[in-house]
Amino acid sequence: MIVKKYTAATETEAALKAKEDLGAGAVVLNVKTIKQRGIAKLFKKNYVEITAALEEKENVTAAPEIKKQPAPDYQALSATTEKAIEKKLDTLHNLLADQIKKNEDDKLRTEEQPKEQNQPKQEEIKENSNFKYLKLIYNKLIDSEVEEKLANIIIEDIDSSLKKESNIDSIISAVYQKIILKLGEPVVIDVSSGRNIVFFMGPTGVGKTTTIAKLASDFKLNKGIKVAMITADTYRIAAVEQLNTYAGILDIPVSVIFSPSELVDAVRNYSEYDLILVDTAGRSHRNLEQLGEIQELIKNIEDAQSDLKVEKYLVVSATTKYRDLINIADAYKDIKDYKLLFTKLDETSAYGNLLNLRNRTGAPLSYTTCGQNVPDDIEVTDVQGLAKQLISGAANTPLG
Ligand SMILES: Nc1nc2c(ncn2[C@@H]2O[C@H](COP(=O)(O)OP(=O)(O)OP(=O)(O)O)[C@@H](O)[C@H]2O)c(=O)[nH]1
Ligand SMILES: [Mg+2]
């Protein structure tokens, strides 16, 4: 893993610098505003410092003995970033420290009982402090509903890269950074380099239409982009009315289409618009015929070879069981290059599924929504916040 710091006037500029230097795979670990102090305040502006990281490709053919040596990049990482990250993780540290103390107290209490006295203390011998902390963090990840296999991989990776008897701060930092790299940088709608048509697909009732309304509002009112909407959801009268209502409030045109060929015509009529948001009817992942219709819609537009960039978002609810999410993702696997958009984060306290599905599909995260309010309850996935929540176990305070 390569970790470096970049400074610039804004977070976006600093992130761009990181991407130029480390490549598109770079992810932001931490953002800090550096305020000028004393007399410098008069002459210099505040600036932003970001810490970015790039996970190097794992060498599949590497001989096993490489593992024996401490990874040099990890050492560099601790030195350069620990301070900033430790600060951010203060709360987490306290929480884990409390938990450890509680575990130790419990252990002492158990040991005081005469029955236990004769038993060999094998566990204690085995448990060096790294093991103890990692076990605790592992339990927190499981509590956050990170799938067991993935939690094991994360913990084993960290374990092999740690110095013996590392302190809790560097262990938390290492896990935090690993999770951020696994979550990756969110990918969102970008109209800066040309016109976009964006398809929203996914199971019934997850919040596709509501999310479209939130995004339409943000792009039109906050970013001044010309937005149009199309709905292919003609299965329910109420669905068209729902989108029409939002369109009316936002003063955005909306077309209703009944077939893939009508979509091409509707898009042609919107040649003046920079962003076209397409709502599709909720599809059961068990109904492959309906899924085929969505594929056809997208293919028709891709084949039409207009100047439009075609983007796809698979909208899923954070409250859905992981096993069902896997089935949903499998059903959509023929639709290439989609992004994952998680809704209803306000209705769950365990965010493991975001990491699980991101890891399983390889599709980037994008936005998350955390309530029914249009336009407010949406944000670009807060990867840092999410990583912290995952390490501290099921969330007490929801994200967003
Ligand atoms: N709590 C919560 N509710 C949400 C969120 N997003 C949408 N909803 C609600 O979920 C319900 C369904 O939302 P829709 O936008 O109609 O969902 P859809 O995916 O378009 O549904 P279909 O078109 O029927 O497939 C509505 O009551 C929304 O207000 C969210 O982030 N949190
Ligand atoms: Mg809908």
CATH topology of the largest domain: Rossmann fold
> Briefly, what CATH class of the largest domain?
Alpha Beta
Shape: globular
Q: Which molecules are bound besides the chains? A: guanosine-5'-triphosphate, magnesium ion
Uncertain segments: 58-82, 119-126
SSE arrangement, N to C: EHEHEHHHHHHHEHEHEHEHEHEHEEH
Question: CATH-wise, what's the superfamily of the largest domain?
Answer: P-loop containing nucleotide triphosphate hydrolases
What oligomerization state is this entry in? single chain
User: Kindly, what is the distance between the CA atoms of the first and last residues, rounded to a whole number of angstroms?
Assistant: 29 Å
Mean pLDDT: 82
Structural class: alpha/beta
Strands of the biggest beta sheet: in what spatial order? Answer: 6-5-7-4-8-9-10-11
- Give the tally of structural domains: 3
User: Percentage of helical residues?
Assistant: 40-55%
Strand count? 11
DSSP helix count? 16
CATH architecture name of the largest domain: 3-Layer(aba) Sandwich
Rg over alpha carbons: 24 Å
| Sheet with the most strands, sense and barrel status | 8 strands, mixed
Strand % is 15-25%
